[in-house]
C-alpha cells in the first residue's frame, strides 16, 4: 500500500489542532499538579512541579477527612446512571414514534421538542421545585426521594436533545427491516427492542453518555434538591471549598476529584460519542 503524502495545508491544520488541544489540556494538568502542593506554594509559584518537599497530599486528606466523598460519588452515580437509562428508553421510543408514525399533532410535538432545547434550567427551577415539594420528595431525610427529585428534572432537561439526535439516526434506517419483523409477528415493542435499538447503538450510546455527563456535572439542580449527607460529588466539593475560603490547593483537589472520573469515562467511550454524533448528523 502506498503511504499518503502529507500536504503542507494538512500539516498546518494538524499543527493548529495540536496547539488548540494543548491549550485545552494544559489547564487540567495545571490544576491536577497544584492539587498536590500547599496553598502557600501555589500562591508563590503555581507553575512549579510538585516534586520533593513541594509534594503534599494534605489537600486530599482534608477533603476526604472532613466529608463523605465516597458517599457523594455514590449519590452522583445513582442519579447519573438513572438519568442516562431513563432518557435512552423514553427518548428512543418518542423518537421512533415521531419518525415512523403519522398522527394528529405530530408537527406540533416536533416543534415542542425543538422548543424544549431553548429553555434553560434556570427558567423552570422554581415551578419544578414547587411541584417536587407538593409530591413530598424534597427537604426530606429519605435519601431515595431526594435523589429522585434531582433525577426527574435532569431527565426532562435531556429529553429534547436526545429525541433530536435519535430521530436523525432512525430516519436513516431502512423501513424494510421493520416491515420484515412485523410480518414475522413481532409487535411494536419487539421491533423497537430487537431491531431499532441494535441498529442505532452508536446514537443511543451518544445520548446515554451525554446524559450521564450532564447529570454528573449539574451543580444547579443539586443545589436546590439535595441537603446535607445527600450531596452529590459536585455539590459536596463546592460546599467544601466555600467553607475553606481561598484555599487554592483545596480548590484544585476538589476540581480534580470532580473532573478525573469524567475524563476516564470520556477516554474509554469517546469513539461512541464521535461515531454517534457523526452518524446521526449524516443520516439526519
From TrEMBL:
GO CC list: plasma membrane
Coarse class of the protein's main subcellular location: membrane
UniProt xrefs under Gene3D superfamilies: MetI-like
UniProt topology in membrane: Multi-pass membrane protein
Ranges where the ABC transmembrane type-1 domain occurs: 73-269
InterPro entries: MetI-like, MetI-like_sf
Keywords: Cell membrane, Membrane, Transmembrane, Transmembrane helix, Transport
Pfam families in UniProt: BPD_transp_1 (PF00528)
Transmembrane segments: 12-33, 77-99, 111-131, 151-170, 191-216, 248-269
GO biological process: transmembrane transport
Annotated compartments: Cell membrane
Keyword 4Fe-4S belongs to the record: no
Record-linked PROSITE patterns: ABC_TM1
Residues forming coiled coils: none
Similarity annotation: Belongs to the binding-protein-dependent transport system permease family.
Protein name: Carbohydrate ABC transporter membrane protein 2 (CUT1 family)
Amino acid at each position: 500500500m502506498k503511504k499518503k503524502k502529507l500536504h503542507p495545508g494538512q500539516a498546518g491544520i494538524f499543527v493548529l489542532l495540536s496547539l488548540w488541544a494543548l491549550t485545552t489540556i494544559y489547564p487540567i494538568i495545571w490544576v491536577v499538579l497544584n492539587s498536590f502542593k500547599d496553598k502557600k506554594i501555589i500562591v508563590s509559584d503555581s507553575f512549579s512541579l510538585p516534586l520533593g518537599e513541594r509534594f503534599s497530599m494534605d489537600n486530599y486528606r482534608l477533603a476526604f477527612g472532613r466529608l463523605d466523598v465516597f458517599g457523594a460519588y455514590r449519590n452522583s452515580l445513582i442519579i447519573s446512571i438513572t438519568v442516562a437509562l431513563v432518557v435512552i428508553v423514553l427518548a428512543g421510543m418518542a423518537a421512533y414514534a415521531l419518525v415512523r408514525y403519522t398522527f394528529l399533532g405530530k408537527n406540533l410535538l416536533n416543534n415542542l421538542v425543538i422548543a424544549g432545547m431553548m429553555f434553560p434550567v434556570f427558567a423552570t427551577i422554581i415551578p419544578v421545585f414547587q411541584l417536587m415539594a407538593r409530591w413530598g420528595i424534597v427537604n426530606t431525610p429519605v435519601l431515595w426521594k431526594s435523589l429522585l427529585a434531582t433525577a426527574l428534572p435532569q431527565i426532562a432537561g435531556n429529553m429534547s436533545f436526545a429525541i433530536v439526535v435519535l430521530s436523525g439516526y432512525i430516519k436513516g434506517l431502512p423501513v424494510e427491516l421493520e416491515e420484515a419483523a412485523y410480518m414475522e409477528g413481532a409487535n411494536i415493542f419487539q421491533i423497537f427492542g430487537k431491531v431499532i435499538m441494535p441498529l442505532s447503538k452508536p446514537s443511543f450510546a451518544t445520548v446515554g453518555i451525554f446524559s450521564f455527563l450532564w447529570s454528573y456535572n449539574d451543580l444547579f439542580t443539586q443545589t436546590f434538591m439535595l441537603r446535607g449527607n445527600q450531596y452529590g460529588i459536585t455539590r459536596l466539593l463546592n460546599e467544601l471549598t466555600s467553607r475553606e475560603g481561598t484555599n487554592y490547593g483545596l480548590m484544585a483537589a476538589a476540581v480534580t476529584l470532580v473532573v478525573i472520573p469524567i475524563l476516564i469515562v470520556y477516554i474509554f467511550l469517546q469513539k461512541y460519542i464521535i461515531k454517534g454524533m457523526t452518524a446521526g448528523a449524516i443520516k439526519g
